[in-house]
Amino acid sequence: MFDGRRGRESACETAASAETGRPEPARDVPASRRTRRPAAAAAATRRRKGRPALWAFFIALGLVAVAAGSLLFYVWNGLRPTAAGAPVRVTIEKGMRAKSVAELLEQQGLIRNAFLFSAWLKLNNEGTQFQAGEYELAPGMTREQIVAKLNKGDTVAAETIKFTIPEGFTAEQIADRLAKAGYVDKTKFLQALRDPSAFTGSVWAKLIPNDPKMKYPLEGYLFPETYQMKRGSSETDIINRMLAELDVKLNELPDDWQTTMQQRGLTLHQVLTIASLVEREVAVDDERPIVASVIENRLAKKMPLQVDATVQYALGQTKAQLTEQDLKVASPYNTYLHAGLPPGPIASPSLKSIEAALYPADTDYLYYVTKKDGSKRHLFATTLKQHNRNIQESEKNAKS
Asked: Worst-scoring range by mean pLDDT, 76-80, 100-104, 207-211, 263-267?
């Protein structure tokens, strides 16, 4: 039933609301409508809040992907071969660590990144077998090829020199030959032979007596042999190599050689001195122990050795015939004027001459003279009378 009073009040309230601008009091709304509106608003709010989080996730994922891609590209690029180019020489020093090798390879343009190369070596258990030496490597080689070459020791064959020192050569003849070949400075070479203490090639060279009368203390210690050495070897290198060869050859003598030497009261210096006299006097192998016995017998009787080769050494030249004046040359090496052995060897003896000096023949000979029939052999004698007959026979059979 219509309430007129209520209607008038409502009309008045509406008019008042219009005049004051205040909102009209809410009217009764069904409950279902009141609950649907807040739920929809909440859902819309959640959707608006979720979108930035999703975008942040995708951005982060993109950054990770970019970083991973950049890292992979860095590794790939750092490990791939360099651009092909001309071969270069690289020297790996003994004891060089893999990291140092990698840095050297990068400096030479053979790899792109030493850090990555080192890491790759470690990951693959490589780098510990690298062999020292000089290598020829080319830009453009793969890391596997480089590592294989270093592991194998596939080094560049060093340029070498080759020379032969004949048996019986003197120090000056050796110096001449090497100097003419362009391998040494003759003056420096001969000067070096005066100081045995400067060399480590031979343990026996350390025992050379300090005798100022010796012309070259290392005379006789430079073993006659064919040598092959690295080009550019110094005078010291060459001398050390020849001294080392002496020690090698002495080890080829009979096992009792040192005992025999001591029993005979000799030093190696004296043995080499006797051997050098034998070497310069004898051309036929089976006569070496016999001539060594003549030297031994004369030393035992304190007779002058009167070996022509010592006079030639003192003169500094080889003469076919010595004169009376030659035999008087003032030199400690002149065994016509001085009894006993000369101060040191007069040439580089062969192993056969060294062995003959250690194991001379058992004879009574005190003299020998060269047969002049071209055979290069000798006639031996025990007495001076026999010796004079041998000289006459040699002259009679001389080849015209």
From this structure: 76-80
Report residue 193 as tokens: 């032979």
Domains of the chain: 88-152 (3.30.1490.480), 160-250 (no CATH), 267-396 (no CATH)
Nearby residues of 86 by Cβ (< 8 Å), 6 or more positions away: 138, 139
Q: Give the whole-angstrom CA distance, residue 92 versus residue 133.
A: 5
How far is Cα 319 from Cα 360, in angstroms, rounded to an integer? 27
How far apart, in Å, are the Cα atoms of 285 and each of 189, 251, 265? 31, 20, 25
CA atoms within a 13 Å half-sphere pointing along the CA-CB vector of 10:
8
**131 three-state secondary structure:** coil
* 281-310 per-position pLDDT tens digit: 999 999 999 999 999 999 999 999 999 999
| Confidence class for position 265, pLDDT limits 50, 70, 90 | very high
Place of tokens 């979108």: 51
- Mean pLDDT lowest for which of 49-63, 182-196, 337-351? 49-63
116-169 confidence digits (pLDDT tens): 999 999 999 998 899 999 899 999 999 999 999 999 999 887 789 999 999 999
Q: Which residue has the tokens 């029939």?
A: 373
The answer to whether 159 and 230 have CB atoms below 8 angstroms apart is: yes
Q: What is the DSSP string of 59-70?
A: HHHHHHHHHHHH
- The first and second tokens of residue 147, run together, are 């590592």
222 neighbors 348 (Cβ within 8 angstroms): yes
SS3 315: helix
**Region of residue 194 (left: phi > 0; alpha: psi -120 to 50; beta: else):** alpha
Q: What is the pTM of this model?
A: 0.68
Give the DSSP H/E element, type plus range, for residue 89.
strand 88-92
333 touches 343 (CB < 8 A): yes
| Distance in angstroms (rounded) separating the CA atoms of residues 207 and 226 | 25
Any idea how long the chain is? 400
Q: Across-strand partners of 381?
A: 367
The radius of gyration of the chain from alpha carbons, rounded to an integer in Å, stands at 50
